[in-house]
Amino acid sequence: MEDILKKAEQARESLIPSKSEAVYQKEYKIYLDWLTRKNVMPKDITETVFLAYFQELSETYSPNSLWTKWSMLKSMVTIHEKRDITKFNKLQAFLKRKSKSYKPKKSAVSSPKDVIRFLNDIHLLHKHLPSSAPGHHFLVPPFSAVFRLQHPLQNPVFQGMGVPL
């Protein structure tokens, strides 16, 4: 029987991805600290407690982050407290409702003209800096290495830019 318990404990420990274990532990600790501040014992958790916790989180985090935190806590609570929070339907409904109205921010995208202008500016800066200037040799080589890999020399967009490819 002892052998079975050891095997079960090993299996339980492998439920958390090894690369992410520190992140999961940190998230679980944040949750436990919140419980302590609210004078709630981990054994007393209910869906209401989780709703309150996620309501507070929703004031700071995006719905995508809330789902990530829910997933991490789901695993950690299952392992450490042997509770199944996937049955907390109101909590899942809350998270879905938060996600419905969420519109992620779009990142600014540089146009090819912006990239060429930036590289030309770097090249000009590199040309006019004395070779003894700090960091002089760090400016252009990384860019030229990237473009050598991403855009072969025959690419007409990058020919004649004045940047050493």
Characteristic key phrases:
165 residues; mainly alpha; 7 helices; 0% strand; elongated
Description:
The chain has seven helices and no strands. It has 165 residues and is mainly α. The longest helix has 18 residues, at 63-80. The mean pLDDT is 77.
Largest sheet: none
Tell me the domain tally: 2
Number of helices: 7
What is the residue-averaged pLDDT? 77
Number of strands: 0
Q: Regions with pLDDT < 50 over 5+ consecutive residues? A: none
Share of β-strand residues = under 5%
CA-based shape: elongated
Structural class: mainly alpha
**Share of residues in helices:** 55-70%
**Pattern of helices and strands:** HHHHHHH
Distance between the termini: 67 Å
Radius of gyration: 26 Å
Summarize the structure.
This protein is an all-alpha fold.
Describe how the helices and strands are arranged.
Elements: H1 2-13, H2 21-37, H3 47-58, H4 63-80, H5 89-100, H6 112-128, H7 140-150
Helix pairs in contact: 2-4, 3-5, 4-5
